[in-house]
Amino acid sequence: MMKYALLAVLISITMACNMDSFVADSWEITIENAGSSSSPKAADLNGDGIKDIVIGSGGPEFKTTPHGVLAIDGSNGDILWQVDARNQIVGTPLLVDFNDDMANDVLIGGRSGELSLINGSSGQEIWKYMPDDDNYDLVNDTLILNFFNPQLCPDLDGDEQLDIIIAYGGFVKAKPEDTDRPQGYLMAVSSATGKELIKMPAPDGRELYCSPIIADINKDGSLDIFFGSGGETIGGSFYRLPFDDFAQGKYDAAIALLTDSLKGYIAPPTLVDINNDSYLDIVVNSVNGKVTCLNGLNMEPLWEAKVGDNFEGYAMSCPGLFYGDDDIKDIFTTYGYGAWPNTEYTTNILIDGKDGSIVYRDSAGTFQYASPVSYDFTSDGYEDVLMAINSPITTTLKNTSAPVTFLGNDLKIYDLREHKVLLLRSSRVGSNIGSTPLITDLDGDGYLDIVSCYMTDARNFYSFSKMAIERIEIQTKKVDSFNWNSYMGIKSDGIDHPIEE
Predict the structure, then answer these.
(1) Cβ-contact 432, 453 below 8 angstroms
(2) For 121-135, what is each residue's pLDDT tens digit?
(3) Most trustworthy range by pLDDT among 10-19, 253-262, 360-369
């Protein structure tokens, strides 16, 4: 206990560093009447050899927007193209060359049944799952729900192309105290046409937010789907469903691996080989203050870490060699204290992968559900964690005596071996509620680029009135390959891949 307490005290000290003093190819743009809880991804869309940025966006809920999906020139921050949307695009883009034109296309989902495949070069929609129609009641119709983060799956409609699996759920109008909510669905969609192929109700009839992860976890050639049900105030379960059973309509084959009667499972699981047996294990964040690691071979718990009463989790866990002298991956994640939406503060925790013990935690910032990402920023051979943290800024204005508090957004690096927290760049007025930063090297010049998004309103987390997107090139050289460098990992599939391919 003394070791734990000492580590927490030492690492809670935030230290200044010179990472944001290196400008070089950095840029920042602002967009009026927009905000985002989507996370940026990068691919070269215009053929200039520099990766460009794609992110979902939107205005206030249920308002049409010209900024639904944005493609941004990685070299200078210019808008390459933007696509309209009838509501906020909250999903993180999946970038794949669907039409074989040698440029990645953009598959992305959002509120009010928004799911589109967009030509990455031109910004033209290839298809849209649900067309715009003024006759839709987007606010009250309980059959029009939200799409989250898509994954590729084997061909289901016989056209010899990979298709799409995605979660469809969440009724935005529901109040926190409402317990009678529309059930969610696990869906399959044709990648060629956007046509619905499978619409499987959540096995327990609960709402569904958790983006599915699909993997051959046992290395036997058979795929499994992992997903969760339930929400902030509704209990649910975490499921394993063989993909072949899903494809054949055998929905009762879904097995509940974990169940919580009070709150559900919202964050996607992280698949990582924790026990070094060469098989992926499953790290599951419960809304209800627990992180569980399931053995990938037998689905039995390897360990469970209890964050504490009144803590809620909406972010995805980040794996890495953060702690100790062993070669066992550890887990870094973030939870909020207080029932949604009244989160009082955020705690970031480090879990020792070998036994599930919490070896570090801090209390940093206010409400957010952006996920941690990692890279060896300090060049000591071990991974560090990058977090977007909302930290209030208190100041005294000119000609006044009373202090005033604004929302402030920081980018911080956790050096878990040296017991330091480094400020990657100085605080910005505003907040980031759910956009996970991207660590990359856009132009291949050897220097790391950090791409992040925040909303500039000084007082309101949810204003969606003006957002900033920034590229920060730092002095740290890219030495190692990227792994968990963005939301859902290097391949956006929730799997901890050992090397960049």
Answers:
(1) yes
(2) 999 999 999 988 888
(3) 253-262
Give the distance from CA 164 to its chain's centroid. 18
Q: What is the DSSP letter of 317?
A: P
DSSP states along 192-236: TT--EEEEEEPTTS----PPPEEE-TTSSS--EEEEE---SSS-E
Q: Phi and psi of 111, rounded to 5°?
A: -75, 165
What phi and psi, each to the nearest 5 degrees, are found at residue 405? Answer: -110, 130
Please state, rounded to an integer, the average pLDDT across all residues of the chain.
Answer: 92
What does the alpha-carbon distance between residue 276 and residue 297 come to, in Å, rounded to a whole number? 12
Q: Measured between alpha carbons, how far is 358 from 87 in angstroms, rounded to an integer?
A: 39
Cis check for the bond before 341: say yes or no (omega within 30 of 0): yes
d(CA 454, CA 472): 13
Asked if residues 64 and 440 have their Cβ atoms less than 8 Å apart, the reply is no
Q: 320 in helix, strand or coil?
A: strand
Find out whether 258 and 265 touch, Cβ atoms under 8 Å: yes
Bridge partners (DSSP) listed for residue 85: 65
Tens digit of each residue's pLDDT (9 = 90 or more) over 71-91: 999 999 999 999 999 999 999
Looking at per-residue pLDDT, the higher value among 337 and 176 belongs to: 337
pTM above 0.85, yes or no: yes
What number of CA atoms fall less than 13 Å from residue 193's CA on the CB side?
9
The number of beta carbons lying within 10 Å of the beta carbon of residue 261 is 11
Question: Taking Cα atoms as reference points, which of 476, 428, 474 lies closest to residue 453?
Answer: 428
Instruction: Give, in degrees to the nearest 5, the angle at Cα 234 between 138 and 434.
Output: 65
Q: Is residue 1 predicted with pLDDT exceeding 60?
A: no
**First-to-last CA distance in the chain?**
41
Residue 453's Cβ-count burial label (10 Å; 0-12, 13-18, 19+) is buried
Q: Give 316's contacts (C-beta < 8 A, 6+ positions apart).
A: 267, 268, 270, 285, 333, 371, 436, 487, 488, 494
d(CA 330, CA 319): 6
C-alpha–C-alpha distance, residues 477 and 255, integer Å: 45
Check: CB of residue 116 under 8 Å from CB of residue 125.
yes
Alpha-carbon distance values, 197 to 146, 209, 226 (Å): 17, 20, 19
Alpha-carbon distance 245 to 192, whole Å?
23
* CB atoms near residue 275 (< 10 Å): 17
